[in-house]
Amino acid sequence: MITLYRPGTSILHRAPAGVKILVLAILALAISLLVRDLSSLALAAAVTVGAYLLAGLGVTGLAAQVVAIRWIIVTMLGTQLVFLSARLAALNTGRVVIVIVLVSLLSLTTLTADLLDATDRACQPLRRIGVDPAQVALLLAMTVTTIPVIAGFASTIRDAQRARGVPLRLQFLVVPLLIMSLRHADDLADAVAARASE
Q: Which residue, 2, 1, 3, 36, is CA-closest to 109?
């Protein structure tokens, strides 16, 4: 499974995986529900920068994550500008980018095995109602690690188009990205089904 983990000794590296997942879930929910204007978006961005500094990754580490998802940002912003005002499109895109970058921070500071174990333990009480904690843990880990995969697809597509002299146009990026993402989702579904049948 793809991982972004970077070894380190920061507070975030040493924090228990379960605590980090819980804090990430709270932050993602707060950003989704409470960020309604540019000032609150700036505050959320400042918190994100602070988290990267706390992890010892610095602003360059944060910038690298933003650059990695640049084509996702272009796609999201471009499609929303067709239907929404520039302010709403920027707010929506900003919220999603901040959450993606925070999820990347979780991957950068937490081993995938620790994510699986923490999720498995948290879901044990749900076993009584038929939920398989191992499957939920696998789903979470795959979701977190899929973000850089899709960002990589977007970069690959754009690099191939640039090599062929194709101009940067949203429609030339969205369709291949969607096809590659759906194919990747099918591959993941096949892998999960194969694991479940073992």
A: 3
